[in-house]
Design brief:
The complex is a heterodimer.
Chain A lengths: L1 E10 L2 E11 L4 E5 L6 H8 L7 E6 L2 E2 L5 H8 L2 E4 L11 H12 L4 H14 L15 H13 L5 E5 L7 H18 L2 E6 L2 H7 L2 E6 L2 E6 L10 H7 L3 H9 L1
Parallel strand pairs in A: 3-8, 3-9, 6-7, 7-8
Antiparallel strand pairs in A: 1-2, 1-4, 4-5, 9-10
Chain B lengths: L1 H16 L6 H16 L3 H22 L8 H41 L2 H7 L4 H39 L4 H9 L5 H26 L5 H31 L1
Helix pairs in contact in B: 1-6, 2-6, 3-4, 3-6, 4-6, 4-7, 4-8, 4-9, 6-7, 6-8, 8-9
The structure holds adenosine-5'-triphosphate (ATP) and magnesium ion.
Chain lengths: 250, 246
């Protein structure tokens, strides 16, 4: 479980996150939705400590991450897996080396075991026979999947995904979404997914937080989302004609 | 203001580079790779530039001291001392500031803007140390060899130019380069080059590491890395010359 309490974060005097609080439970897909520029990435990066917050607390299973000495933080970090908006694979390493990287860095396993684990993770994301290719030699969707494989290599307790399906076709996007949901349930991870894709919201939105202009405007599940009378949320969801039509049918 | 800001952040960056290390096995593998990428791949350009530099120094010296009272072997001696004391270490370092500095800054800068550095940070790896320390160590190990190669090739270049143009006979030149030879001059030059290697790699690493935005900014960081490390080389050259030879 991850708990964010009253997070405030600003850059150069401009406040991006305005007092955001939220609780993310394990074993379910927690979604953060909001317009481009609303602060989703900043929020996710603040949770994992890539941005130091101005004030507020972040608790990882009751461990206060914000006030912890660096030594303890590193321990918590090794329980995190993160998927970045642009995949962020290491270009100088092959697919297999990318997935093996966390294992090479943090485990004492023999090379054979590490390779086996890497192959297992690659199979888990339905990738085979690409081990020796470089990131530039595979498609965007495959890169995303490699990045997921790398994020889960160490069996993390906490999984963070920043727009896992941006730039993918609808079919691949759904495959990735479902993959994230399956892994979350399988290993009882605490998973947080940033997205502005309504398909994801409806598909895997078990717990949804809507951020508007750096503030939490709404919270609920994909079942509640059509019933909400929150104006900003409705403007966001029903921006497309398609979803307006759905609403009229309901 | 911005100058002080960079000095302070650079100092903190260097401290981080030498902070918490990664596994030794991985570290040594990286050093070997960087010795190849940064050092061995620069041998060619160092040889070419040093040869011509030695040739020009010898000819310049010959034409400038073309007096009957000065013996011909003085040309060899003067060329030797210029090459060993000054040209090899400074020129090799300036070449490397351009070649290696821009390479390091753009590599690390690209990793920054594509969030690869964030990946390392999230895992709890000391990203500055992981990325920059192997490069610092590799260039510190390689630069003395490059400088010694440059000295040798420079003197060969001088001999070739001097004898083919006929400004200095071969035996006089060879006598000159051995006359009153002070081995400390080589040590002095190598000490300087090691300091320069440190400056090039850390300054280029710094600009790459703190790149923001996109590929345009990475290009800008890379230019800045070259300009600033070149200036620092010249500045420290002055300081070290005063400290070591005075
Ligand atoms: N490092 C930074 N320095 C200064 N401002 C920043 C920084 N990172 C983000 N911002 C600002 O914070 C705001 C929120 O950005 P953020 O990246 O969180 O948006 P987002 O919700 O993830 O958008 P998108 O859906 O497009 O990814 C933006 O106005 C951005 O300019
Ligand atoms: Mg974002």
């Amino acid at each position: 479980m991850i708990e964010a309490r009253n997070i405030i974060k600003s850059f150069d005097g401009k406040t991006i996150l305005k007092d955001v609080s939220a609780v993310f439970k394990p074993g379910q897909t927690n979604l953060i939705i909001g317009q481009s520029g609303s602060g989703k990435t900043v929020f996710l990066k603040s949770l994992v400590g890539l941005h130091e917050v101005d004030s507020g607390d972040i608790l990882y299973d009751d461990r206060d991450f914000t006030r912890m000495p660096d030594k303890d933080r590193i321990k918590v970090r090794q329980e995190m897996g993160m998927l970045f908006q642009g995949s962020a694979l290491f270009d100088s390493l092959t697919v297999e080396e990318n997935v093996r990287f966390p294992l090479d860095m943090f485990t004492k396993q023999k090379l054979d075991e590490r390779r086996e684990r890497a192959n297992f993770c690659l199979k888990r994301v339905n990738l085979e026979n690409v081990n020796h290719l470089y990131p530039s030699e595979i498609s965007g969707g495959m890169q995303k999947r490699v990045a997921i494989a790398r994020a889960i290599a160490l069996n993390p307790r906490y999984l963070f995904c920043d727009e896992p399906n941006s730039g993918l076709d609808p079919k691949t996007a759904i495959v990735i979404d479902e993959l994230i949901q399956e892994i979350t349930k399988e290993y009882n991870m605490t998973t947080i997914v940033n997205t502005h894709d309504m398909n994801s919201v409806l598909g895997i939105g078990e717990h949804i937080i809507f951020i508007f202009n750096g503030e939490k405007y709404w919270e609920g599940s994909s079942q509640d989302i059509f019933q909400s009378d929150n104006k900003e949320l409705n403007d966001f969801i029903f921006a497309s004609k398609f979803f307006r039509k759905i609403k009229d049918k309901l | 203001m911005s100058f002080l800001f960079h000095i302070g952040r650079y100092a903190m960056f260097v401290k981080q580079v030498f902070g918490r290390p990664v596994k030794h096995r991985i570290f040594f593998k990286q050093i070997v790779r960087e010795m190849d990428v940064l050092g061995l791949s620069s041998v060619g350009i160092v040889v070419i530039i040093s040869f011509f530099m030695g040739a020009v120094i010898t000819l310049q010296t010959a034409y400038n001291i073309d007096l009957p009272i000065i013996p011909k072997y003085a040309i060899g001696l003067a060329a030797r001392d210029s090459i060993i004391l000054e040209f090899s270490s400074t020129i090799v370092s300036l070449i490397l500031a351009g070649k290696v500095g821009s390479h390091i800054a753009s590599e690390i800068g690209t990793m920054r803007v594509t969030e690869q550095i964030d990946v390392l940070d999230v895992m709890g790896i000391n990203s500055a140390g992981y990325l920059v320390l192997p490069k610092v160590m590799a260039l510190i190990i390689m630069i003395p060899f490059l400088v010694i190669i440059s000295m040798g090739v420079g003197i060969i270049g001088g001999w070739t130019a001097g004898t083919t143009t006929g400004v200095v006979p071969s035996d006089e030149f060879i006598y000159g380069i051995q006359y009153m030879f002070i081995p400390f001059y080589i040590t002095y030059s190598l000490i300087k080059s090691v300091v320069f290697a440190f400056l090039i790699t850390t300054i280029a690493g710094y600009w790459g590491y703190y790149s923001t935005g996109g590929s345009l900014e990475v290009g800008r960081s890379s230019t800045r890395a070259v300009v600033i490390s070149s200036i620092q080389i010249l500045l420290f050259n002055l300081i070290l010359t005063q400290l070591l030879l005075a």
